Amino acid sequence: MSILILAEHDNASIKGATLNTVAAAKAIGGDIVVLVAGEGCGAAAEAAAKIDGVSKVLVADNAAYGHQLAENVSLLVAELGKDYGYILAPATTNGKNTLPRAAALLDVAQISEIISVESADTFKRPIYAGNVIATVQSSDSIKVITVRTTAFDAVAAEGGSASVEAVGSAHDAGNSSYVREEVAKSDRPELTAASIVVSGGRGMQNGDNFAMLYSLADKLGAAVGASRAAVDAGFVPNDMQVGQTGKIVAPGLYIAVGISGAIQHLAGMKDSKVIVAINKDEDAPIFQVADYGLVADLFDAVPELNSSL
Amino acid sequence: MKVLVAVKRVVDYNVKVRPKSDGTGVDLNNVKMAINPFCEIAIEEAVRLKEKGVVTEIVAVSIGPKVCQEQIRTALALGADRGILIETDVEVQPLAIAKLLKAVVDKEEPKMVILGKQAIDGDNNQTGQMLAALSGMSQGTFASEVVVEGDSVTVTREVDSGSQVVKLALPAVVTTDLRLNEPRYASLPNIMKAKKKPLDTMTPEELGVEVTPRVTTLKVEPPAERQAGVKVADVAELVDKLKNEAKVI
Q: How close is the nearest chain B Cα to the Cα of A96, in Å?
């Protein structure tokens, strides 16, 4: 059975989440075809062709796909996808936006955020903020699946030599248009790909105090995240939120600063390899998942930690 | 204009659920139930649009067993004008929910359907997108701002890289993210008034929608537990542990 993967890309390059999705496809087994839908996305398609394990790249290079609007891309995915046994995308905001729409057009269910492949039709996925793991079996002829990227180790970005084939179909639903984007600019690693993440919560008290975490992160080569409380309070923007409904991270080291540890936050980070919690409340639930807990005032501990590295 | 809001009955977000010991499902005995938080945000947004004079009527729809009337009554107390319960005891999955909502959309012809981006039980994040596909509507998912102007709605979306603004022709589907608004509490007089608001009940059969599940849950289990960690005395010990024991820095 062939597998179609909707690539995560920015026209110029392939995003890491695509590599994790290819890993999930390999676990399923079959011919792996990557679809790059965009505008001026030749470079991304070339990069996709080099991914280890990919046999073919389909490029749909058209103005209609320029900003990867779900209304248009889902029509393309549904058209191409009907000949495949599986359609996969990473569970990024883009994948989550487009794939259910394509699934509905194909009249099949979607299985969201799988964390393992048990067999050709059976997968594991977290529910209830990760407090329960469900093993689910699909009876649909086409299995549409989003992949939790942290659960699958990325395949090599180089080493493959897939053929690249242009797709002519231009679907423009004509009912939506892109206005603008505000992209957070940062020299730090991407939150979902970083090997170390430093996150701040309500205990940070305000946005200015996050400067301490940025400084610590720069010493560690880390990304900076936040709890929902810190984002809701306006300390930092939404793209930094780690949790059930924000970003899911699983770095080698996660340092939670001034975060109490609501289950919704734990859902986004508890698969990290090593968790450090710094909180002055010794009863904070974050300590129940932390490998190393430091009960201290973060305004003393973080500068001290920073200077001792 | 008329707005349709979907509300789901879920386990209260403060409850830490556990699988039943035989792995056949989640233990929901004597567990507090509530409106899915994202659906509450959807109701609030509709009510605010009505207060601004943009929306004239709000219809709250829920799908599930009879007890889901409670969540519709809450929506009515928060400001919805009338309710529709699609009553079924079958475990209705996102595709079937989208089909049922499409049937309601075909009848009611709302200009906008507002839903939560996901329910905190199944964590699927599919229904709004599927409804938009089936109804041929545009979609503004993960919304943090919704501005209606004439025949279109401008939606600011929370995306991985920051935020994205899209302009959608109406009718459109909007799914709510956390920062769209802060839902109000229902006042006692409004709770009393809600009891008198109309609530229709229909069934999937009456709507001509097949709701048989496509995905079967074979078992549920708790996630792998983390080993309990240690408390360190000070920053020096923490740095030492990270360097020499965990070897992560």
A: 7
